[in-house]
Amino acid sequence: MKRRIFKLFAFAAILLCGLLFFSPGFVGTGLAIIDTLLLEVEAPPSNQVANDEIILFAENSDGHDPAWEKRYYYGLRSWGIRGSGKAESGQIWFNSFPGATGEYEIVLKAVLEHDGSPPLKLSANDLTLYEGNLPYHDGHLDCEKRGAPAERSLGVHPIASGAKISIWAESTYECGEKGAYMLWEKLIFRPID
Q1: Does residue 120 or residue 24 have the better pLDDT?
Q2: Contacts of residue 125, Cβ cutoff 8 Å, sequence gap at least 6
Q3: Which is more confident, 49 or 21?
Q4: What distance in Å separates the CA atoms of residue 93 and residue 55, rounded to the nearest whole number?
Q5: CA angle, 77 as apex, 149 and 65 as ends, to 5°?
Q6: Cα–Cα distances in Å, from 114 out to 35, 134, 154, 182?
Q7: How many CB atoms lie under 10 A from the CB of residue 164?
Q8: Are residues 13 and 87 in the same domain?
């Protein structure tokens, strides 16, 4: 409830400032900043085991290479490769899979972008489970559009309890200075009966 009241108040303040300065772009930028600040203030979700699904949140990883950083976009508590203007890569990992040994459909909740198709590799105990590129949001390169959150199945794979789960990714710059940073929020493991 407090979050809604704060968001409404903040929206009204930004709208008023935007009207005072006659700058429509100011209002949109202000709203994006408020979304990011609200995500920073909220308590982060914990990794979950519910309805037999195991959910690993990027921000609860046990470690990551220096190229990875918090990149909250599109209302997601996402992580991604930093925007440095050049392709960078690295791993982010979870030391111990909390679920039972078995087969799982693995779903990645990520931002599918229009301006790049970053490569990624998902591994369990250094065994590659999935390797490919995150697809463009609409299936093709378009340097003028923004991305959107989506879920993407990475297939059905055997996972051992306690396995180290890792994602390797690389940023791409297919539109010059605008990059695609492999922004992702969580991995969802759905058991296969």
Answers
A1: 120
A2: 160, 163, 164
A3: 49
A4: 13
A5: 105
A6: 22, 11, 20, 12
A7: 16
A8: no
| Tokens describing residue 30 | 């202000």
- Residue 45: pLDDT over 70: no
pLDDT at 140 over 90: no
Domain range for 57: 48-191
- Structurally, the chain folds into a number of domains equal to 2
Q: Which phi and psi (to 5°) does residue 29 adopt?
A: -65, -40
109 plus 64 within the same structural domain: yes
User: Is a pLDDT exceeding 60 seen at residue 162?
Assistant: yes
Alpha-carbon span 147 to 115, nearest angstrom: 8
| Residue 55's CATH number | 2.60.120.260
As beta bridge partners, residue 188 has 55, 107
Q: Phi, psi (5° rounding) for residue 80?
A: -165, 175
Nearest-angstrom CA–CA distance, 155 and 173: 27
Number of H helices, E strands in the chain: 2, 14
